[in-house]
Here is the input.
Amino acid sequence: MAALQDKLASSIPAIRKELQSLVKQSGSAKLADVTVEQACMGLRSVPSMLCDTSEVDPNRGLLIRGRPISELTNKLPEEIFYYLLTGELPDEDALKSLQADFRKRAEVPEHVWTVINAVAEEAHPMRTLSIATLSLGTESVFRRRYTEGMKKEEYWETALEDALTLLARLPQVAAAIYRRRYKLGRRIPSDPKLDWAADYAQMLGVEDPKGEFTRLMRLYMTLHCDHEGGNASAYTSHVVSSTLADPFFAFAGGINALAGPLHGLANQECLEFVLGVHKKFKGVPDADQMREFCWDVLNSGRVIPGYGHAVLRVTDPRFTAFHHFGKLVCPNDEIFRIVDLGYEVIPEVLKKQGKAKNVCPNVDAGSGALLYHFGVTQDTYYTVFFAVSRALGLLAQYILDRALFIPLTRPKSFTLSWLKNFVKQAPGANS
Ligand SMILES: CC(C)(COP(=O)(O)OP(=O)(O)OC[C@H]1O[C@@H](n2cnc3c(N)ncnc32)[C@H](O)[C@@H]1OP(=O)(O)O)[C@@H](O)C(=O)NCCC(=O)NCCS
Here is the structure.
């Protein structure tokens, strides 16, 4: 099978043509009517962008190129990157070629380490990661070639160059941030013999005699890779990328959105929730105690982290994959048992409360307990794992946006007084 670059070069012209003729023939066909509520309350369910890498089906969860994520959990993240971009899994030669490409680009420029070391040590790791990502971007080929007058047809090629460089270096940067932030000693060098996620795992310096943490990291990196185009980080990244800011800027924009507690930061909050249960009951509570704890959280006006979703209406299959892993690897771990108990009790509590549209666990509900089991107890770091994995999807989306000549994103806003007038004149308005 062809290397990633060749595979894309052979497939992009036809996809580009297909989209152009669809827009030409059916450009005025309506996708949806947008309600006042949708426009004012976060654009929920408004179909407003093209994203071919993956989709989220409310009842099936994440489908990558049409295939449920549950069928891809044994794949390496590198394979997933190839799959996100092309819709085909690489064969052994194509995978080797991609891994060799990563190795060729792996050296992190010295100035990036200087930048990381200049950030306040106590800064949240997501802040440091964002700064470090921007600093990596000084070598953007997309930016350099753009200023030299690169043709539009070539945008995707230099975007791919930048994406490969960023992916090759990101695990080293993320691992260095971990070791510095939590005072764990010097940076551990990258091992070119290892696959992408295994190398990240070893650079963190986590003891892993049975290779189980490495397996968890491969699974983690695969499960968080992408979640269609409309989630907050992907959408942010898409908007930045549409300005033709380079992939480093777009990725940094995306992970800044990921750093919010309603999005990627929820995984940190989930572990804090579970540890709170453990502390209060000095171990694993019974189901009644757990219920009572959840009601206390809800009655104090807080949400139960790790439950609910803007799109999903069933248990997130990514939660199921983590849950399955925990059942195999650490079924007796007290923190994991609380996650397990939560899965039994929380949906029923949220149902009784009657507010959440989805009462099932999302991807964040159980991942922290597994990291904790392996000694990665620093939950303020957890969103960085999410961000490293999500680079696969955000960068794949960037490349495809450029390949398809997706123009500047520019929706229309309106003022409150315009809205008041509009509502007065709308059919069905109170006279
Ligand atoms: C993910 C989330 C932000 C989706 O938000 P949403 O699309 O607005 O969800 P809904 O439409 O179901 O929300 C309706 C109501 O239920 C509440 N709700 C949703 N999930 C809830 C939860 N896990 N705990 C308590 N209340 C919840 C909302 O806060 C909202 O209350 P409000 O009307 O008082 O504002 C929301 O479910 C949440 O905050 N979950 C916890 C945080 C989390 O796990 N984030 C990670 C997402 S992958």
